[in-house]
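thread: overnight batch results

M.L. [08:02]
morning all. the overnight job finished for the chain we discussed friday. pasting input first so we're all looking at the same thing
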Amino acid sequence: MDKSKKTVFVSGNFYALHPGHVRLLRFAAECGEHLVVGVSNFSPGSGFPPPAERAEALRELGFVDRVVLLENGLEAFLEELKPDIVVKGKEFEARTNPEAAIVEAYGGKILFSSGESTYSGRELLVRDSEAPNLRFPAAYATRHACDAANLKKLINQFTRLKVVVIGDFIMDEYIECTALGMSREDPTVVVSPESNNRFIGGAGIVAAHARAMGADVSFISVAGADEPGRYARDKLGELGVRVSFVEDESRPTTLKQRFRAGGKTLLRVSHLRQHEVQKELCAQLLAKARAALDGAHLLIFSDFSYGALPQGLVEELSAAAKSAGTLIAADSQSSSQMGDIARFKNASLLTPTEYEARLALRDQTGGLAQVGHRLLEENNGSVAFITLGAEGILVVTHMPGSDETDRLPAFNTNPVDVAGAGDSMLVAGSMTLAAGGTPWQAGFMGSIAAGIQISRVGNKPIQTAELLTALS
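M.L. [08:03]
and the structure it wrote out:
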């Protein structure tokens, strides 16, 4: 543990984690920089969760830094930890507290509070779905050999893949708020921030997904010389991704903030620069990517049009990948920015939305299947997933002797947070192709990954075990 950080300690039984506990723990987290929670090792009997299970529930809150079982008692652990602050509920202020003498001896202090009563605790107690209820289309699965046995064989091949991801890194930050009401001075919604969670986003989550699904992954991108850039490098390293950032002093690391209340996003704020990287930095990116491509099975371009993928870089890397027999997959987003999926030639997989595909072709009237086939023909591409949001995807192929199309409905019809669905589909679909799967199996696997992703708040790497569980 970093001794330079102000440590806060809370202890208790936590037999049934409820909003009162969350308020207390949130208050404690705001009193310092490192929150440690001690769980009593006492079990009152049947009907109550064991200590280890109670500890896991606390870890899932997301803002508790460390949870320990007090196997040797509270006093012994306090003597060892020596936290700067011990927080206890307000009801303990008038009682005799065994911690007082120990804390006073080493110069710490005790604070008594039960947290903010205005906060309901609703959002912080929401759990991501551990096993999302995905509905698979039986007819499609029968037509295209998408049974569990075949798909599990492909998933087991993911560990043999070497994947290179290059594109725009983004840090996503979710600020959960309590809605206090409407301002009396003007028609403005007033909120109070309650929690702050960071997630790896952009091309970074693409790399994290690929690693969590079993591949050997190298990630090349641009970041600023700032704290978010350092956090991203460390976090991706912890996940097992080999990170090669080129630092650009002319831009901050892209940070996107979402302010949410009641499960809804109220406002997005983006801290970014969108100019292309300078020639010297582009040369560094190219050199790093060329080195990583040695022996790679799959190259993924994750383009958000923030400057990390100049056209010259894309063309040189695409040519190198094609020459080496490396599969190419690409996604270019055009939501609040202007992307162009058509600039990625010779791709084995493209994953545009319908809007992005039509934008690339300047075609707002053609049939959807026709748009998909035209996109692949003009790009010399093989497979496209035209993503349709809640309506699923259209799988389009353009290969020798095969210009076929089939549709997959959305597997998860009750999304919690749709952010990152396309990234997970891109990774799972392209890795399935690289593992020897058909385009139809790739579309099915990508849809499974997207269904898992939207069952939780924020971008979190999808694990191989989650894919296998979904198939079971």
